[in-house]
Amino acid sequence: MKYLFSSLAFVSICALTGCTQSEPAKTKTSTADTKVDTSTNTASTSTATADTPPKTGKVYTVAVDADFPPFTYLDQNGKPTGYDVDLINAIAKNANMNIQLIRKNWSEFPQALDKGQVDLWIAGISVSEERKPIIDYSEPYLTYNTGVLTKKDKKGMAINQTNLAEQRLIALQGTVDFDYAKTLVNKPENLKGISTTFLGMKEVLTNKADAFINNDRVLQYHVKQYPNYNFRVFDLDTKKSSAGSLGIAVKKGNTELVQKLNQGLASIKQDGTYAKINQQWFGVADQN
């Protein structure tokens, strides 16, 4: 996967260390063909299929989020990109499906599925028992856990789960990871809420915090973008953390589509495509 950086390395360094307040734009080449209209908040469409899609047959509409990196977001040309976009393209190719990406707001989930406005939704959606009565899921395509981002060497010691309670922790306000982080600190003042992942990385880099608690997949992705900053990510005990899995959501009762998606997912796991996509986005070629 080729990433296209819109700024020089100096700008990237300054973005984390404080020379500028903006995060460097990071995009990658996309298989989308039609530019998404970003001038309004209305849903826009983009044809995004496998390299050699079927010439005929049903076109399955796929809802994606415009602002949820690394899973789904828009590149500098306004085209949908992200881990989920690469994944659904690979699944579609192996399941012999035509797909069309449609930009949707999260507030429309899951009503858009139920009303038939889209056929499936992929945007880092957690498999939830509470949602299963109203939607169906594919087999889980990715697991996640509560991760911890630190520097590789902090004051001559390695931060780990045993000494985490003594550290200055930060987490995204209003998330399950923030709630979990409350149980980790030995003093309430050792935990601070922040608003963005980028800010969390900056706080650790500039020694304003010792560790950043967040979704491990999100952390892996962002650390991969900054290989020279000496970050490391480790997972917490899955028995105590907010571990879970992601699935592709479809309208309740659409078992035929679920079977197609599961077939495509199994195929890309078998031929190595799945591992390559994970390696490209997260730096980890896992099979879960």
TrEMBL record:
Residue ranges, annotated region (Disordered): 24-52
Cleavable signal peptide: 1-17
Give the record's GO CC terms.
cell envelope; membrane
The annotated regions of Low complexity compositional bias extend over 37-52
Q: Does the keyword Signal apply?
A: yes
Q: Which residues form the Ionotropic glutamate receptor C-terminal domain?
A: 59-284
PROSITE patterns with a match to the protein in the record: PROKAR_LIPOPROTEIN, SBP_BACTERIAL_3
Bias-annotated ranges (Polar residues): 24-33
Localization recorded for this chain is: Cell envelope
Q: Name one Pfam family in it.
A: SBP_bac_3
Q: Which CDD domains match?
A: PBP2_HisK (cd13704)
- Primary location: other
- Keywords, A to Z? Signal
The protein's GO terms of the molecular function aspect are: ligand-gated monoatomic ion channel activity
Annotated family: Belongs to the bacterial solute-binding protein 3 family.
Q: Which PANTHER family match?
A: ARGININE-BINDING EXTRACELLULAR PROTEIN ARTP (PTHR35936:SF17), MEMBRANE-BOUND LYTIC MUREIN TRANSGLYCOSYLASE F (PTHR35936)
What this protein is called in its record is: Putative ABC transporter substrate binding protein
